[in-house]
Amino acid sequence: MKKLLALTVCICSGSVQAKQDICVFDLLGKAGESYKMMEEWALAAKVWNADVRLIAYQNEEKADNDFKSGKCAAIYMTTMRARAYNKFAGSIDALGGVPSNAIANKAIVYVLDKRNIKRLKTTIDNVEYEVGGIGQIGPAYIFVKDRNINTIEKGTGKKFAVLEYDKAQIAMVKRVGAIPVLSDVSDFVGKFNKGQVEMVGAPAYAFKPLEMDKGLGANGALFNFPVLNVTADLIFNTDKFPNNFGMQSRDWFIKQLPRQFAMVKRLEDSIPAKYRMNLSKDEKEKYQKLLREGRIDLTKQGVYDATMMSVLKKARCAIERTNFECSISGE
């Protein structure tokens, strides 16, 4: 009987994974919406035979470095930085690629579909990484300190805070003639608030907690035109998690989308209307063409995934069939 009990314990213990630490980046640390969502994910992960512990980071670069060094078995961070681990999923945040919540929903659901399992795995330095989920953070808008900067041409020569690791942002800012000021997620809004830059792109997620009204002052504004859709990726080391963990995790993330989009709407509605500035129809189309040209160039350079660019175009044209790009090739 004792031998049978010992054998049972041995077999059971072999199926139990060691505790996995998860690096979770949120601008607001444990108080942020993203971290709170990941707390719920951690509870769900126990059902998938994973015993995870979340570690909160307000510095995204440090979180990434700890993941690279093996301190964490997985990381939840902005898709723009996560692109280094998976270009297919990482290209969902392409500039101008997802101009509405309806398109964002279609794109995220498509990427996480089980038919894309091979595209969601990447081997880097003999380590297999897998995308375990995509979270919606929301559309990013251009904020300006002077509402008179209301055309592309008027942005020429103005300082624009960009994320130093995102080649796409740097290239696009240069394309409009503005001056890119290299920044990190932890300080890009701070530079705008302190007057070190005249322009910055950010989602509503950052507005209230980072006190962007201080940067806007009495004459600032945000263009009511999303330049990109910000998401976050869960990237994990496949070898450190149970079989089918990725599929179960991705299914869980898809089920969270309705409330995540509700969160985005709540945060956007909280921005005072006095700051919003609508662009003319001609100016919007000018921006769309500029962003499209930029995406095509960046895809040729290998920054964006060509398959994802085609998927995003189909999603845009399914929602906005009369858009000028739907009748021309190129993506």
Automatic annotation (TrEMBL):
**What is this protein identified as?**
RND transporter
Recorded source organism is Acinetobacter silvestris
